[in-house]
Amino acid sequence: MEPFAATLLEWFSHYGRDLPWRGTHDPYLIWLSEVILQQTRIEQGRDYWLRFISRWPTVEQLAAATEEQVLREWQGLGYYSRARHLHQAAREVVGMGGFPQTIEGLRRLKGVGDYTAAAIGSFAFGLPAAVVDGNVYRVLARHFAIDTPINTTEGKHLFAQLAQQLLPEDRAADYNQAIMDFGATQCTPASPQCGQCPLQASCLALASNMVGALPVKERKLTVKERQLIYVYISCQQQTAIRRRGEGDIWQGLWEPVNVSEHPQLAPLLAEAILLRQGVRHVLTHRILLADFYLLHTEQRPALPDEYIWIDQEQMDQYAIPRLIEILLESLPQNHGRTKK
Fold first, then answer.
1. What is the 8-class DSSP label of residue 235?
2. What is residue 26's predicted lDDT score, i.e. its pLDDT?
């Protein structure tokens, strides 16, 4: 076994994180945790994972749920394509009679990429597949002083090849968990604990004073701003909402009247009360700035056909983006209410 891998496994035996999805070989529980933890902190993801397995203990039960139910349970996690892919993949798994037990088969499931396939394969089935996530990139880049940008084709290939070479095939699951935990708690992005690092003697970045400069990323895409204007209509205990369409980042989620996409509805603002202005919501490549109005009326205004009217008390039954959740919290009847 490589000294690098042996050191990480020894460290892991003392300092590995105690997470509820560890200690199981159930591919459903492992897959669910990996999908939830994409773009999500463990502290937040743990609660969602526990809720999901409480409501849908098996992949068959998740597959039998509606997309609306899954999106509603996912609400607040963001990146909603993950929830839609999760639901679709659950149905694929049920259709084939169980989870594939090869990396290639796992990779073909909706929403499962190289990392997730390697995680499920090694943790559930003991397959000798190395995971490469942000923590792994950081540990390898620093220890071996690699300045190839990690978000390039060359970088992804280089790090994947190196990670696979270092993997002890007979302990793939333990090693994968060890290097991820090491990056998350020891070799952290900021203020890594180099003075107490068991790899400090062989770390090339530490020796050359490059720890803070690695890993390298190419310049990010320009983040664009988008202005949104919403009106919550209160009409005889009912309100109007619409479901976002296909191909949208919020596909399948609901929102109040969106004046920014239906400018012909701008006259509604003249009689409405401004509740929130310039609410800032940051997505990966976009910053949303939202204004939120409340309109009390006794007659339903004419709206595009895509809007439906629901009882206001039923709003909790519809999956909404986090931004809309924030805006709805400013409604007078919601002040003091606690979120799910």
1. B
2. 97
What are the b/e assignments for 247-281, b being 16+ CB within 10 Å?
eeebbbbbbbbbbeebeebeebeeebeebbeebeb
Annotated catalytic residues are 34
Taking phi over 0 as left and psi of -120 to 50 as alpha, with beta for the rest, 78 belongs to left
Positions in the chain short of pLDDT 70:
220-221, 334-340
HSE-up (13 A, CA, CB side) for residue 249: 11
- List residues bridging with 227 in a β-sheet: 289
Question: pTM of the predicted model, to two decimals?
Answer: 0.77
266 to each of 133, 257, 303, how far by Cα in Å?
A: 45, 10, 11
How high is the pLDDT of residue 246?
80
* The pLDDT of residue 221: 66
Q: What H or E segment, with its residue span, contains residue 232?
A: strand 224-234
Residue 204 φ then ψ, to 5°: -70, -35
Amino acid at 311: D
SS3 content of the chain, % helix, strand, coil (to 5): 50, 15, 40
What is the 3 state secondary structure string of 304-337? CCCEEEEEHHHHHHCCCCHHHHHHHCCCHHHCCC
